Amino acid sequence: MKKFYILLGLFIALIACSDYDEQEFTVLLPNAGEDQIIFTEETGTTIQLNGEGSTDVNNLGFTYQWEVTNAPDGFEYTIENSDSALPILTVANNASGRYNLTLTITKGNQQAQDFVNIDINPVIAQVLLVNTIDADIDAILSVPELDITGNAVAKHSADDTYYNIDLNVAQNSDGNVVLNVNYNGTTLSIEESLGALKNYTIYLIGTEIAPELLLVEKTKNANTIPIGIVGLDAINLSPGLENVELYIDATSFNFGIVPVDLLFGQLGVVESFGLLSYKDNSEIFYSATSIFPLAIWGAVNQERVTNDTFISLTNGESGKFGTFVIVKDASSTEGNKIIFINNSSLLPE
Question: In angstroms, rounded to a whole number, what is the distance separating the alpha carbons of residues 306 and 147?
Fold first, then answer.
């Protein structure tokens, strides 16, 4: 969009060049600086704007003018030195939302504009896309209100990051956020209310010809897991597979091959995964000192229905969380596959 307005300014200037002698004509190249995310408790309520990157090709000079074109309702703001390259935007300490600013540079009758967004105390939720469909087709998450387009996600895998969703900007008038997933030439949409400081996983489920979206909220995440605690959840997303129980090979600890719930219960874990039918999701929380790199798999009536996987969390680390995901896998002996997603490693730093 920025390139469009620069080219538009160049086009207008070329059309109007007959109004200037050769020494007066120039091409204006405005630069309103980078978008900013500001938390007033950390940096205060004054924000430095920077248009010093603006130039004109003939070095004839120009004037600056900054303007706030859109601001959150109910919060006062001021711009000092709005006719300079380095004005100051001052906002209320409790302000929250996006401020859209326009920088206009002018030389005679020539003008060009650039734009910058300042997000003040954004209310952030985080969303991760996981593609569980057993077909060699990539899926891509998009959030239209934020111009977010994610990475291509192959089958049986997750995107390599959570995406920050600024709820002040992304929410519709009804308070919901539209999340899209582009898959096999089709755009699937889900519209849900998201909570601040929460992590969500949007699963692409079903089949190649009948895909669906399933949004799952983490009960606890990096913001809410207490020090010394790890959170794990398990979800069954293999169509037609019912009553799956997770097993673990704990023979090296003299427990034998037992259900995960039984082992963790003996370690004092109150929660349990239970039997997982299609789309069922369960969470457990336990001491960070009790992470075992032991084989884990899914079974129905004690009969194996998946491959082995492992918890890929470092022993002793706290505040971590991960997910066991059971998916359909026609290429495997069991017809299903269990994968582990280390959710905490995917969080933006």
Answer: 38
Rounded-to-10 torsion of CA 161, 164, 170, 176: 80
Check whether domain 224-349 has CATH 1.10.10, yes or no: no
In sequence order, the 6+-apart residues with CB closer than 8 A to the CB of 314 are 291, 320
* Sequence-separated (6 or more) residues with CB below 8 Å from residue 173: none
Alpha helix positions (H), 172-311: 260-266
Tokens representing 279? Answer: 């789309």
**Which residues share a beta bridge with 128?**
201
How does DSSP assign 76-130, residue by residue?
Answer: -EEEESTTSSS-EEEE-TT--EEEEEEEEEEETTEEEEEEEEEEES--EEEEEEE
Task: Tell me the CA distances in angstroms from 185 to 38, 146, 155, 278, one per residue in order.
Answer: 38, 22, 16, 26
Summarize the confidence of residues 286-296 as an average pLDDT: 79
Q: Please write the tens of the pLDDT for every residue from 258-288.
A: 999 998 898 888 899 999 999 999 999 888 7
This prediction's pTM: 0.71
The alpha helices in the chain, defined as continuous H runs, are 2-15, 40-43, 167-170, 260-266
Domain 124-217 belongs in CATH node 2.60.40: yes
Q: What is the pLDDT of residues 85-108, one digit of tens each?
A: 999 999 998 888 889 999 999 999
* Topology (CATH) of 2-120: Immunoglobulin-like (2.60.40)
Residue 125 Cα to chain centre, angstroms? 8
In this structure, what are the phi and psi dihedrals at residue 167, rounded to the nearest 5 degrees? -70, -25
In angstroms, how far apart are the furthest CA atoms of the chain?
91
Measured between alpha carbons, how far apart are the two ends of the chain, in Å? 28
